[in-house]
Design goal:
By secondary structure, the protein is an alpha/beta fold. The chain is built from twelve helices and twelve strands. Helix 6 links the parallel strand 5 and strand 6.
Length: 356
């Protein structure tokens, strides 16, 4: 019998990719819980919205009654927890929302899962999994050498990363205290189709196409490890199938790039794929702007555990994944226009002064 997955945040960027993969490959029946905030969009689920194996529920992961009703009615075999406020700049402007969704929401989901498991027969209990999707930002900033491993100490720098770190600790505590079969994953920066255009890559792609300034924080030399979203979701599905409860798995693309390298590569791809732009070359649009408060200098993921234990490896290198991403945004202007029809207008967020 095909398993039933409760996927939280399944209308967001990574969550919707995971849902689309599962439904396209008939890998699971999906119960999709999403609050549909600015970054959660039903347009990202258009390929699966009418599929009988996909049930969408508009609700808040921090709403106790909603979460417990879903467990009772749909009897999931696993939880894949994506739901989170995720943009660092927004966490600087409004940290309370990040605490509510990322910390309280994770707690409510854990409590509902714990109570639900108490009523399951032994075999179903043993096969149940709670997969918590987190970020490499919980580890803080690296120097010029080394990579984050599963045992790296936590050192969050922003309200966003602090809220995700708190959620990670709760998930591990529920494994150690109650025996809830949880798994934590920490991934590097994701990119790909359907990403909300406040994040670096889609913002730069869309601004380059339209001839708008390309704002680069600080000196542009902050380093991130980039992971194509479809590769990430394949890794999560492998972990769900074969990962060990109580374990942590780092997922990275082994694609370290400085921010300015990313922006310049996007410019070259837009110039190539959109010949004849009046503002070409797009690199002329680059503008260096004051840095983000608490901006970590470098992230890099050591993904050797998941490679060795589960045999996962990314299928996309940086250039092939980015080319596919730029082409997708060129081909899907209707999606862009619809997701930008709310309050967000690609303005800069997170502009606050530090207390002295």
């Amino acid at each position: 019998m095909r398993r039933t997955l409760l996927v939280t945040g399944g209308a967001g960027f990574i969550g919707s990719c995971f849902v689309r993969q599962c439904i396209a490959e008939r890998a699971a029946r999906v119960i999709n819980l999403d609050k549909l905030t600015y970054a959660g969009n039903l347009d990202s689920l258009e390929p699966v919205l009418d599929d009988t194996e996909h049930i969408f529920i508009h609700g808040d992961v921090a709403d106790r009654q909603t979460v417990r009703r879903i467990f009772a009615e749909h009897q999931p075999d696993a939880v894949v927890h994506f739901a989170a406020e995720s943009h660092v700049d927004r966490s600087i402007d409004d940290p309370a929302q990040f605490v509510r969704t990322n910390v309280l929401g994770t707690f409510e989901l854990l409590e509902a899962a714990r109570q639900y498991l108490a009523g399951l027969p032994g075999q179903r209990w043993a096969e149940f999994r709670f997969l918590h999707v987190s970020t490499d930002e919980v580890f803080g900033s690296l120097g010029p050498q080394g990579r984050f491993t599963e045992s790296s100490p936590y050192d969050p720098s922003s309200p966003y990363s602090a809220s995700k770190a708190a959620a990670d600790h709760f998930v591990r505590a529920y494994y150690r205290t109650y025996g809830l079969p949880t798994i934590v994953t920490n991934c590097s920066n994701n990119y790909g189709p359907y990403q909300f255009p406040e994040k670096l890559m889609p913002l730069m792609i869309l601004n380059a196409i339209e001839g708008k300034p390309l704002p680069v924080y600080g000196d542009g030399l902050n380093v991130r490890d980039w992971l194509f979203v479809e590769d990430h979701c394949r890794a999560l599905r492998m972990i769900l199938e074969a990962g060990k409860p109580g374990s942590t798995y780092n997922i990275g693309g082994d694609c370290e790039r400085t921010n300015i390298e990313v922006v310049r590569t996007i410019c070259r791809l837009v110039d190539e794929l959109c010949p004849g732009l009046s503002h070409s070359p797009c690199e002329s649009l680059i503008r260096f702007v004051p840095d983000r408060p608490g901006h970590d200098r470098r992230y890099a993921i050591d993904a050797s555990r998941i490679r060795a234990e589960l045999g996962w490896a990314p299928q996309y290198d940086f250039l092939s994944g980015l080319r596919r991403t730029v082409q997708w945004y060129l081909d899907n202007q209707r999606w862009v226009q619809r997701v930008c029809s709310g309050a967000y207008r690609r303005e800069r967020l997170g502009l606050v002064e530090r207390l002295q």
